[in-house]
Amino acid sequence: MKILGTGSAIPKLEVTNDDLAKFLDTNDEWISSRTGIKSRHILSEGETLTDLAAEATRQALADAKVDAKDLDYIICHNIMNDRCIPGMSCIIQGIIGATCPCVDTNAACTGFIYALDHADALMKAGKANKILIICAEQMSMMIDWERRESCVLFGDGAGAVVVSNEGEDCAVKVTACYTPALNCNVKQGDTPFRKDTTTYDKLEMAGREVFKLATHNSCNDIQTVLDASHTTASDVKYFILHQANLRIVEAIRGFLEQPEEKFPHNIEHRGNTSSASVLLLLDDLNKANKIQRGDKLVFSAFGAGFTSGACLMTW
Ligand code: ACO
């Protein structure tokens, strides 16, 4: 599997840590020293998640020089969509004029790695040659804006790639392990017929425990895909990691004993955009011409579930 093109889009509104401190008991020093985040982009009046997903898709198709009609599948990953149904994959299909099958998936922040795993399987089964993967996330809709320990972490954004079955074999590993103690939960609300005794419909999260498991799983996943492809960390050009916390990126870098320049990051001005984060970073690197054909890239992400995964791919 090979990536033919990338695209990304973020909302117009940039919200700084100081902006948050106007309505939350927080400050720039706490947020940036614990997470690396200085600002994030949040959807506001007049723009939708669909707009972002469509823009990221248009860029990815143009970069890949692929016509929408030549796509064999669209996989869209999102935790929350503008609508429950239809899936965003179908909405984007309509916007770009594709005719292929479409599906939406949800593996929380690990979504891009899961989508790559699905795309790889579809290609190996001979069911698709060119697949559009979109990760579009509106975390601002599901976070509790009164919970300072979590709302400061997230941002909105969308990324897209076109992958094809040309290129070298990739190694993908995905995991899931239901772990309620992490409290990575967004529950459903009440209905007229059922009262939930724990009617909490916004994100709650046990930050420290997530931090530890995320670091542990990512190191494991990355080592697994390196071993599976008989590659060492030194052979890898970039480790493009889920942008959840700069300290997690640093911890993984320490485990792999690799130089800082191999661990690009943009969390400073994006925050955690869930499954879109790896794609936003990949697109930044691609647009800056920092990746050459033949470079080995490792993607790795983790999220609610608890899910995690890594993929080693040659650009
Ligand atoms: N501003 C100021 N103070 C704060 C804030 C804030 N925004 N949030 C919490 N605090 C306070 C706490 O109340 C606590 O105060 P206390 O010591 O008086 O009780 C203190 O700061 C320390 O809080 P900790 O939780 O111990 O801080 P920690 O250093 O662990 O950092 C953080 C918290 C940033 C959440 C970290 O644990 C983390 O990044 N965890 C990983 C989260 C993650 O990656 N999530 C993404 C995957 S999950 C998903 O997919 C939904």
Order of helices and strands: EEHHEHEHEHEHEEHEHHEE
* Share in β-strands: 15-25%
User: Strand sequence of the main sheet, in spatial order?
Assistant: 1-7-6-4-5
Helix-strand category? alpha/beta
Care to describe what's here?
This protein is an alpha/beta fold and 315 residues long. It is built from nine helices and eleven strands. The chain has helices at 17-20, 28-35, 49-64, 88-96, 111-124, 148-151, 207-228, 246-256, 276-287; strands at residues 2-9, 13-16, 39-42, 73-77, 102-105, 130-138, 156-164, 171-176, 238-241, 296-303, 307-314. A five-stranded mixed sheet has the order 1-7-6-4-5, sandwiched between helices. Strands 8-11-10-9 form a four-stranded mixed sheet, sandwiched between helices. It has a two-stranded antiparallel sheet with strand order 2-3. Helix 7 (207-228) runs parallel beside helix 8 (246-256). The chain starts with a strand and ends with a strand. The model has no long low-confidence stretch (mean pLDDT 95). Acetyl coenzyme *A (ACO) binds at residues 26, 30-31, 34-35, 108-109, 148-149, 152, 184, 205, 207-208, 210-211, 214, 244-245, 272, 303-304.
Per-chain topology:
Blueprint: E1 2-9, E2 13-16, H1 17-20, H2 28-35, E3 39-42, H3 49-64, E4 73-77, H4 88-96, E5 102-105, H5 111-124, E6 130-138, H6 148-151, E7 156-164, E8 171-176, H7 207-228, E9 238-241, H8 246-256, H9 276-287, E10 296-303, E11 307-314
Parallel strand pairs: 4-5, 4-6, 9-10
Antiparallel strand pairs: 1-7, 2-3, 6-7, 8-11, 10-11
Helix pairs in contact: 3-4, 7-8
